[in-house]
């Protein structure tokens, strides 16, 4: 029996998703765990895998569409099965949510021929079409009405990239909506190129970039953090010469012991810093805590969120139980997580439930900065670059390396003295870094 597939919840905070791409087409056989589509959520691009087996009879929303949770996206069933009732929203056997099901079948009516196996006598599409506009077949593509372009952000983005005037494109999607396939083979309109030229004194129109799911989530969470979490900041400078010497020695040893033809492992400043923070958090557990309305939770685990910049924004994969891991293991895990973060392949659970965050902008040449706390964590450490500068040693001024760090604290959880104690312990570890290897 045919079944309507609805958009599932693919991340804990997901409320809607954008179908980035379908990996199956109508008529394909589907097995359990087959990849149906990729869905961009507020966290990352997630794989939407099938929980059922059968034949993909109908795709209800094209790639690029933004879909609410629970909204029907496809129909699966036996080969050749009549799905006109489900597609038309009158049969509802799959128990789609009423509000979503009501909207989607209307869209489906606009493109009945795509199914290929619709019965000759099937009236539902035509019947619905008559209710909206006289006797014309609902499948006919319609141009945009009243100058309003009906297209998803993804399609608009495609149009901008190709210099296309979407207002002149006849959409073949539901209710004349423009879908990606409508743009195939189109050439930029002359007006689009001419529009780039502006009259003297006229301000050029800004480039409009629709918000991605991730950007929306970043905006929401960081606004919430700055508006509801009372931040204060503590900064220190650390003598980075010992840490630099240790890192160079470790990497030299790794290179010397690597097998022939094997790329030697490496340890970065950040890897040593992550481990040092874990040790400091064990020694000052009040910084490894979070605020709740009824109590302060002091975590018994050290799971550090490491901020990773990606083209769409920022994600924070979590390295678990850092205090129990060796530096080399941490280095390998951070690199693996960062690689998958940039490929948008992290799972939601890999970005959730950190207890402390580190944000390092040293590789961008930033000396120091203050980071916004990643709620519900109680603190985040912002790390600048290791810089060379004159330093005073004894009675002499000599060249040296310095590293600036700023701890952003949730004052509801971390008081000034507690934050300062944490930084004191952290500095002591970084300036005597063999303790990092022993911790």
UniProtKB/TrEMBL annotation:
GO terms for molecular function: dihydrolipoyllysine-residue acetyltransferase activity. Residues 2-77 form the Lipoyl-binding domain. Residues 150-187 form the Peripheral subunit-binding (PSBD) domain. Residues 87-157 are annotated as: Disordered. Its cofactor is (R)-lipoate. This is Acetyltransferase component of pyruvate dehydrogenase complex. Forms a 24-polypeptide structural core with octahedral symmetry. The pyruvate dehydrogenase complex catalyzes the overall conversion of pyruvate to acetyl-CoA and CO(2). It contains multiple copies of three enzymatic components: pyruvate dehydrogenase (E1), dihydrolipoamide acetyltransferase (E2) and lipoamide dehydrogenase (E3). Binds 1 lipoyl cofactor covalently. Residues 93-103 have a biased composition (Low complexity).
């Amino acid at each position: 029996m045919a079944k309507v597939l609805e958009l599932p919840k693919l991340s804990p905070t997901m409320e809607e998703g954008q179908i980035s791409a379908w990996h199956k087409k109508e008529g394909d056989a589907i097995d359990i765990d087959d990849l149906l589509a990729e869905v961009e959520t507020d966290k990352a691009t997630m794989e939407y895998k099938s929980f059922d087996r059968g034949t993909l009879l109908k795709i209800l929303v094209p790639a690029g569409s933004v879909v609410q949770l629970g909204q029907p996206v496809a129909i699966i069933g036996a080969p050749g099965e009549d799905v006109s009732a489900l597609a038309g929203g009158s049969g509802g056997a799959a128990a789609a949510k009423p509000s979503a099901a009501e909207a989607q079948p209307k869209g489906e009516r606009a493109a009945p021929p795509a199914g290929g196996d619709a019965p000759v006598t099937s009236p539902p599409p035509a019947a619905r079409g008559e209710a909206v506009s006289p006797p014309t077949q609902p499948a006919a593509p319609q141009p945009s009405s009243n100058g309003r372009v009906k297209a998803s952000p993804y399609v608009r983005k495609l149009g901008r990239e190709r210099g296309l005037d979407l207002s002149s494109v006849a959409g073949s999607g539901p209710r004349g909506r423009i879908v990606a396939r409508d743009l195939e083979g189109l050439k930029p309109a002359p007006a689009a190129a001419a529009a780039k030229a502006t009259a003297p004194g006229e301000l050029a129109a800004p480039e409009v970039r629709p918000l991605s799911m991730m950007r929306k989530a970043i905006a929401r969470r960081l606004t919430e953090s700055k508006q509801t979490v009372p931040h204060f900041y503590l900064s220190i400078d650390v003598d980075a010469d010992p840490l630099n010497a240790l890192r160079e020695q470790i990497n030299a040893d790794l290179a010397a012991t690597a097998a022939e033809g094997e790329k030697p492992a490496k340890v970065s400043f950040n890897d040593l810093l992550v481990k040092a923070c874990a040790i400091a958090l064990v020694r000052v557990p009040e910084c490894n805590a979070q605020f709740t309305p009824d109590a302060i939770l002091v975590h018994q685990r050290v799971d550090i969120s490491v901020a990773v910049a990606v083209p769409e924004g920022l994600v924070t994969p979590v390295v678990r139980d850092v205090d129990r891991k060796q530096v080399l293991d941490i280095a390998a895990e951070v690199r693996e997580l960062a690689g998958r973060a940039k490929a948008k392949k992290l799972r939601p659970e890999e970005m959730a439930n950190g207890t402390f965050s580190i944000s390092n902008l040293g590789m961008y040449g930033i000396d120091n900065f203050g980071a916004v706390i990643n709620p519900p964590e109680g603190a985040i450490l912002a790390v600048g670059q290791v810089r060379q500068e004159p330093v005073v040693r004894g009675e002499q001024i000599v060249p040296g390396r310095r590293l600036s760090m700023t701890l952003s604290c949730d004052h509801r959880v971390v008081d000034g003295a507690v934050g300062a104690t944490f930084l004191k312990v952290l500095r002591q570890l970084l300036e005597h870094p063999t303790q990092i290897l022993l911790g």
